[in-house]
Amino acid sequence: MKYIFAVLWSFVLFASAFPQVAKEKLIEMKIIEKLVRDITGRSSAEVYIAGKDRELFEALKKSKIIKITDRPKKAEFIIILTGNTDKQYSRPSFALGYLAFKNCRWCIGGLYWRKGRPQLILVKEKLEKFGIKLPEEYRFYIIREKELTR
User: How far apart are CA 29 and CA 73, in angstroms?
Assistant: First the structure.
């Protein structure tokens, strides 16, 4: 009886983790969509993903705003994932994940999770380098590069 209870309880705990992952990817996708739309000023844009994240890739494939391309030169926006921060791109790059943001010195910003909440950071000098002007609603997320603790 205890064995059955333990198996059922572990199944409940294991199964409840999946909606959270899906929810986080959905939130990431919505933030990325809005950011891409505001940065490019267009209703749809081609995006290159540097790295492998099957869940994010599948979520972004369903997006009406983001069109995924396999060539970075064709993209208007680059998403950098952890472990892919060694190559610098000529397009605005955005890091997903704390380590990717910490190691990506040329990224215009980053999105990562801390204590179950999304953290968005945009670097003022990098935005200016690409001539990006964002709406006023982003003012709380824009910081100077010298304020970063990398």
Answer: 22
Q: What CATH number has the domain bearing residue 42?
A: 3.40.50
Q: Mark 30-57 as b/e (b = at least 16 C-beta within 10 Å).
A: eebbebbeebbeeeebbbbbbbebeebe
What are the tens digits of pLDDT across the range 37-88? 898 888 888 888 888 877 777 878 788 888 888 888 888 888 888 776 677 7
pTM for the predicted model, two decimal places: 0.77
Q: Is residue 117 in a domain?
A: yes
Query: Residue 61 carries which side chain, given as an amino acid letter?
Result: K
Domain count, the chain: 1
- What is the extent of the structural domain holding 98? 20-147
Distance, CA of 33 to CA of 141 (rounded, Å): 16
